[in-house]
Amino acid sequence: SYELTQPLSVSVALGQTAKITCGGTNLGSQNVHWYRLKPGQAPVLVIYGDSNRPSGIPDRFSGSNSGNTATLIINTVQAGDEADYYCQVWDGGTDLVFGTGTKVIVL
Amino acid sequence: QVQLVQSGAEVKKPGASVKVSCKASGYTFTNYGIGWVRQAPGQGLESMGWISAYSDNTHYAQNFQDRVTMTTDASTDTAYMELRGLRSDDTAVYYCARLDYDDGLSWGQGTLITVSS
Fold it and tell me: Which residue out of A96, A97, A100, A102 would a mutagenesis test of the B interface target, given it has the greatest number of B Cβ atoms within 10 Å?
């Protein structure tokens, strides 16, 4: 089965830039989506189709995908960005696959 | 806007079954599939499978094939997920989500299922 690997945690100072990677074989050929999870809240889509922002998501969030790695970038990190982030793809068009998840810690 | 409202938290005993509902609104229900994803305490997101609301075709994740049944009721725009033979490690928050290959998932608020004797 297809696997997506993320760093366990990323620490970033307030106001700086956080970069969260998602690795998978030939990932650049797939549509990658990113979700933010906060305790007690439903997951929120923050990037879809590699680099597109849903309405309501600030332009501090951006994404890219090439080769074997997709990246979620959060610019000018705020305290409210502290959360778990997951990448997601479809494997073979039938299996929903999530990354291992990354905890963003704001210092 | 797309909204998925799930049924409330439940406590179940080991060996029991649970059925979680997910009522959709804000879009044409039969145009999209519904997936079910769970998150156990301290763990990541785990896909359980999905159902087409158009055809009722299902695809279950291997880990759940023997214990899960997903259904829909187009007359009420509601999807259901039943999990049988509950174990303590099934304690988790269960989410339904509207599936879209290109535009990502839209999520319900989650349902906490606690399995305890």
Answer: A96
